[in-house]
Amino acid sequence: MKINTQEFKPRRGCEVHADEFSGVEQELIQRVIHARRDIRQFRSTPIPADILLRILEAAHAAPSVGFMQPWNFILVESQETRREIKESFNTVNAQEESKLDGTARGELYSSLKLEGILESPLNIAVTCDHSRNESFVLGRAPMPQTAPYSVCLAIENLWLAARAEGIGVGWVSILDKIAVEKILGLPSGVELVAYLCVGYPVEFRSIPMLEEVCWKERAHLQKLIFRDRWGTPAELIPSRSGEDKPSLPAEQQLTISARAWDKINRKTKPLGSLGMLETLAVRLAELQQTLEPKLRRRRICVYAGCHGVTVEGVSAYPSEVTEQMVLNFLSGGAAINVLARHGGIQIHVVDAGVAGNWPAELLRLSNFFPRGVRSGTRNFFREPAMTAAECRQAIEIGREQVRLAVQAGIDALGIGEMGIGNTTAASALIVALLGFHANEAVGRGTGINDAVRERKVEVVAGAVKKHATQACLPLGQYWLEAVGGYEIAAMTGTILEAAKVRMPLVVDGFIATAAAAAAFDINPRCREVCFFSHRSDEQAHGNTLKALEVEPILDLKMRLGEGTGAALAMHLLDASARILCTMASFDSAGISGALEAQVE
Ligand SMILES: Cc1cc2nc3c(=O)[nH]c(=O)nc-3n(C[C@H](O)[C@H](O)[C@H](O)COP(=O)(O)O)c2cc1C
Question: Are residues 327 and 421 located together in one domain of the fold?
């Protein structure tokens, strides 16, 4: 019988209209896609049968070449079988590891957990049956690989559906394929496509584990999109470079900000009831020029530098601690490492001027930037801390980090520091730039006693008095040279560059705030990109924030530096963006708004 294709109508389906899925539903699918992770650490809790079935139904709903549906799912529960497969992993993994022997990357590889075969409650082997049903499969012959490609689509469906149920999936490819096919008894014509570990995870990281340990960064999407032919860029993502995209004119800025306020005011809550989260969300919307701001990809740069002024006896710790702490940051043991891991935040460690010799294996780490201008500043109680050229070099070190962040598609950058003696430099900076008295500006830093504090006041007052005679514009730069530090100047550089590309920039504690004071003096527009993470317990920090007329996000009585406050504040910035993006409005939720006659 001949079918008249003109008259043929599909039996089921729904009318096509653009708003079939609500904004909340659209956001939800994006959320699941971005929250999916490869999981290697599992809890033993079994997966309920009905949930497993739902996940497999999602897999089975995948598209396939010629509707071939070439997949099978082998639920591997037997510990005996899994032990054999784990053996295969151990053998192949040792071979892979040996390819990197003797390198820093090899050490990192050995430390990675790359499977969860035995501890996950279930393994699923997903196979491709190349001869499924018939010899002619519509559309397959020209591209035979489309059969296993189709299986991969089923796997991605399974992965996402599992994620929506709070279940993790880890794909193990470090296996001897032939050996595993034999263990599982696959007949000829059926090949293994994926071996998956499935179960409730210990955690869902917010970024891939390989990114978190700085093995590899996510590529910048813009570089992957071509138009018409290979290599011709297609500019889809708004550029963040200050030169090719000046910030929008004031009236358009106002529009985004006004629209963001309007959007937030329609959310299902009394007006203004989310307090500072609302202002943070609107500021992010303005900076990212979207009503759907995102803080998915976050990074903190920890800048380190040594200070010549320590010879004046102004700190409770010896100068070598700066170098030792850099090693601690790189081995992942410092407070900032813990808080960054918790927040899914990457860390870059930047030597801006540390007195120390870095072992060769550290120099190969992709998150370490040994850019040191000099082995510490000069003693600014006697002479300028650095030359003008050194100061420019340090500022450039900080600017470079913003360019790297833009390339990596980072949504928000934080700055923190480490440098024994740097509260003395920061105090001198705020005395010089904000007109504080040395006695108000000097705190206890790492915990100095009264006598040392008195000496510190003397050093700060003396240095500012001495260098004031030569002061020249811009004052921010002059005072960085005179009494600053290489890590402080680098932070100033990061703020200056962030302002240029409109990157949200989270400023950590007292020292980073002093760097911001210098940046604000050099370019007042830096204010627009800076978020001040917290009010620290260092004596002068609260008043410094007041003098700069900025409001900190948190007050946790912290006084550590390293970017620890910035790491915590990033959670709240992310939370504020999510409120603007995903919270229901009175309209979308069908909830009555306030009675107009009864609101203030
Ligand atoms: C085909 C494929 C094979 C993979 N094999 C392994 C593996 O053997 N071991 C492992 O730890 N991760 C493996 N992964 C996970 C990737 O490392 C991971 O997907 C990637 O780093 C991105 O991280 P995310 O999945 O958490 O977003 C594999 C992923 C895919 C898609």
Answer: yes
